[in-house]
Amino acid sequence: MPTDEGSGAAAPAVIRYTAFTDQPTGGNPAGIVLDAFALNDGDRLAIARDLGYSETAFLSRRGGGEAGEYDVRYFSPEAEVPFCGHATIAAAVALAERDGPGQLVFRTAAGAVPVVTRRDGAGAITASLTSVTPSVAEPRAADVDAALSALRWPRQELDPSLPPKIAYAGARHLILAAASRERLARLDYDFEALRTFMLGQDLTTVDLVFRAGDGLYHARNPFPVGGVYEDPATGAAAAAFGAYLRELGRVTPPAQVTVRQGDDMGRPSRIIVDIPPGDGPITVTGGAVPIGG
Q1: pLDDT beyond 70 at 293
Q2: What is the percentage of the chain residues whose pLDDT exceeds 90?
Q3: Domain range spanning residue 63?
Q4: Does residue 122 carry a pLDDT above 70?
Q5: Residues 146 and 106 in one domain
Q6: Taking the alpha carbons of 79, 283, 158, 247 in that order, is the dihedral positive or negative?
């Protein structure tokens, strides 16, 4: 945390929200600094490391820009990441609670991310982010084998109808589909081996998924590159997964799917993914609630 000795200025406030849930005990916690203009990279990393959440979002209002425009950077306890979905949702809800619902634009390292916040009939605020233009690529067989080895997953336990791909919607994720819910529930991977593999491939998470039914998927996201064993809700991966489903023809756009994540961690999360026709951005929606420090 930066010091304010001799300046008389107070250190920026750090607030805590958990995203993709309506309960403080669910979802994925994120740190948020709504006025991070005076912080340098070392300050930001120190705050993120002290919080220990998978990501902390640092916002700075853009001078001379449109109202509701912010420069946003995301830091894990280990490093900066280009984009984070759950911290985006959390920060947008926090802004809406402070300033009122409406339209925002987050200028991230991955590109401009429009966000719309709204209040439902019960008074709760939800946020919808629209990703940067996504893409889907074929991984090398040797890379899939390396990931499976680190995960301790036999290849025969993959779902052949959902082949491995690398998908991007602001950050890169390797998508691997389990053939059974039981396989997904057993997560016991080699942290250092998977971390080394992911750093070499510029992956943010490995998105492990299981198709539970029409429009419903369960997911788990190891995040060793961020110093976190597992992410309870990963909005960036959900957006990338939406592009993946469209690329493979597993949905007929416009389509909406639900991703359930965090159940196996005791932090249930619900991520709504809207998939438009064509090859354009994916929209991810969720709520967020404040949590204690």
Answers
A1: no
A2: 92
A3: 15-117
A4: yes
A5: no
A6: negative
Residues 212 and 78 in one domain: no
The C-alpha angle 35, 226, 116, rounded to 5 degrees, equals 45
Per-residue pLDDT for 265 more than 50?
yes
With CA atoms as reference, report the closest residue to 2 among 14, 15, 17.
14
Pairing of strands 172-177, 205-213: parallel
180 and 249 both lie in a single domain: yes
Strand pairing class (255-261; 15-19): unpaired
Among 82, 117, 152, residue at a domain's last position: 117
17-29 mean pLDDT: 98
CATH code where residue 236 lies: 3.10.310.10
Domain count for the chain, please give it.
Answer: 2
Q: Is residue 7 part of a domain?
A: no
Q: Average pLDDT for residues 174-185, to the nearest whole number? A: 98
How far apart CA 193 and CA 274 sit, in angstroms, is 34
Give yes or no: residues 99 and 186 share one domain: no
| pTM, entire model | 0.94
**Same domain for 152 and 46:** no
Q: In this structure, is residue 124 part of a structural domain? A: no
- The residues, any chain, with a CB within 8 Å of residue 282's CB and separated by 6 or more, are 130, 131, 134, 169, 239, 240, 242, 243, 273, 274, 275, 276
Task: Give the residue from 104, 109, 110, 82 showing the smallest Cα distance to 91.
Answer: 104
For residues 257 and 194, membership in a common domain is answered with yes
